[in-house]
Amino acid sequence: MTGPSASARQFRHRALRALRTLHGRAEPARPRTRARRRGRGARIRTVTAARRRPAAPSLAPAPRPWVRALGLAVVAGLGAWLGLLVVGSVHTQVGPMETSMTLRPDLTGGTRINVSPLGALELASHTAPLRLDVDVEQLDPVRSTALVEHPERLSGLEDEVASDVVAGTTELAVRSCAAVVAGATALGLVVYRRPRRALAAGGLALALLAASTATAAATWNPRSVLEPRYSGLLTSAPSLIGNARSIVTEFDVYQQELARLVTNVTKLYDATSTLPAFRPDPGSIRVLHVSDLHLNPAAWHIIASLVKQYRIDVIVDSGDTMDHGSAAENAFLDPIRDLGAPYVWVRGNHDSRTTQAYLSRMKNVTVLDEGRAATVGGLRIAGTGDPQFTPDRSVVAQGAPAERMAGIRLASAIRDQARAGTPVDLAVAHNPDAARETDGTVPLVLAGHLHRRQVEVMKFGTRLKVEGSTGGGGLRAVQNEKPEKVRASVLYLDRATKRLQAWDEITLGGLGLTTAEVGRHLPEENKPGAKPSPEPFPKASPATPAAPSRGPSGPARSPVP
C-alpha cells in the first residue's frame, strides 16, 4: 500500500498549522534545510523567518524616577497654591475688630497685618514658605467705644484677643489642609488622568503643608512683635504710641494712647454717620478730588477706601503724583488700574512726559493736556498739564508767567468747546495760577500744588477749589517736625445742571493718623434760607463772540465767553 502523496502531506500540514493558529499555539520552527528539500521558494522561507523574529524594542527611553518625582512635586505644589487661592479667607472677630486671615505661599514667611487705610506692619514671626495675612476690615463701633469709655477693660483685652486669634488660626488651618489636598488632587487628575497619581499628588501636598507648618512652629519667634516693620501711614506709629519695648515697660501710657488711636480710627470708619444733615441725591455725580501724592504708596489705600465708601463716579487727580518723574517711578502708578473708578489726571510740575505717556496707556485713565476735554463719569472735563518740570535743573523755571499762559490756553480751549456745543462742566490744572485764568468760562475749576486747601469764588463766578496733599507731602514729609496731613475731597454735583451741591473734606492726621476728620461744606446758594440757586453757568453759543482774554498783566475779561 503506497503512502500518501506529496500533495496530501502538504495539505495535512497546512490544516494542522491553521488549527494551531486558532488555538494560539505557535508553529514549531523548522530548519531551513528541510524547507529546501521540500522545494519551497525563497519567498516562503523569508516570510517564515520574519514571523519567528521577535518584535523590535521601543526607541523611546522610559522616564527616570527622579523626573517623575519632580513632576509630581511640581503638580502637588501648584495644586496646593491654587487651593489656597480658591479657599479665600477666614473671617473672624479679634477683639473689637472684624478681620480676615489668609495663608499665602511666600519664600520668607512671616506675618503681615494690613490696617487699611493706615498701612501695614510686618512681623518676622517665623521662617517658612507660608505667610499669614491678617486684614483688619472694620472696627465694631460699640465695642471700641466701650473700650475708650472704660480703659480698665483693656487689661482683659489681651486674653480675649489671644483666644480669638487661636480660634481663627485653627479654622484657617483646617480649611487650608482641605484646600491644598483638594487643589493638588484635582490638578493631578487633570495632568495624569489616573486616580492613584492624583491621590499621590494630594498626599504630597498635605505633606508639604505639614512640613511648612512644622518649620513655622520650629522657627516661631514670639519676640517678633517687639520689632515690627511699619509701612504706609503707620511708619511713624512708634513715635506716636512708643515702640513695642516701651509698651512692655510703660503699659499704662500705652493703654491711654491705644484708646485714643482706637477712637480716631473708629471716627474714620464711622464718619458718614456723623456728617451734617445734608444728604446728597442718590443720583448726584460724586467726584473724588486728590492731588500731590508725591510717591506715598499709602495714598492708594486711602483712595480705594474712599471710592468704595462714597461710591465715587470719577477720580480727578490734579497732579504731582510723582517726585522726580523718572521711568523707575512708573511702577508706583500701577494700583490706579484697581481703584474701581475712572481716573482723570493732569501733569504736575513733578510729573514728567514719561509719566504722562505711561498713564496714557492705562485703560481707565484719561490724561488731559493743552485744554483737551473728555466726558468721564457724566461730566465734561477739560484740563492742562503744568508747563514746567522743576526736577529738571538744566532748564530755568519760568515761574508764574508760564503758569498763567498755560491757564489762558486752557480758557481758550474751554470757549472753543462751548462754541462747538460741548460746554465744559469742570476744569483741572495743577497750579492755582493757571486755574485762575479760567474764571468766567467754567463753573468749577480744581487745582493742587500748594499742599493746603483753599476755596474761593472768583470775580466772574467760577469757584476755585485747591486740594491739599493726598500723600501727606509724600516721603519727604518725614523730614518735617510734624507730619503733613493727608487730604482729599468728595464733590457732589447735580446730574442735570452739573452744579456743585456740596463737598466733604476728608483730613487724616499725617503719617501717624492720630486724627480722622470729615467736614461737610455747602455752597452759599445751597445753605438753608439762601436765595434760590442761579441758573446754570452761562455757556457760549456759536453766535456769541468770544470775549478778549487778558494776559498776565492785561485787562480783565468778561465772565461770559
UniProtKB/TrEMBL annotation:
Q: What are the Basic and acidic residues biased-composition ranges? A: 519-528
> Which Pfam families does the entry mention?
Metallophos (PF00149)
Q: Which residues cross the membrane?
A: 69-91, 172-192, 199-220
Task: List, as start-end ranges, the regions of compositional bias called Basic residues.
Answer: 31-41
- Provide the Calcineurin-like phosphoesterase domain boundaries: 285-452
* Region feature (Disordered): 22-41, 519-561
Residue stretches of biased makeup (Low complexity): 540-561
GO cellular component terms given for this protein: membrane
- Gene Ontology terms describing biological process: lipid A biosynthetic process
Instruction: State a single Gene Ontology molecular function.
Output: UDP-2,3-diacylglucosamine hydrolase activity
Organism domain of life: Bacteria
Keyword line: Hydrolase, Membrane, Metal-binding, Transmembrane, Transmembrane helix
Protein name (Swiss-Prot/TrEMBL): Calcineurin-like phosphoesterase domain-containing protein
Species this protein is from: Streptomyces tsukubensis (strain DSM 42081 / NBRC 108919 / NRRL 18488 / 9993)
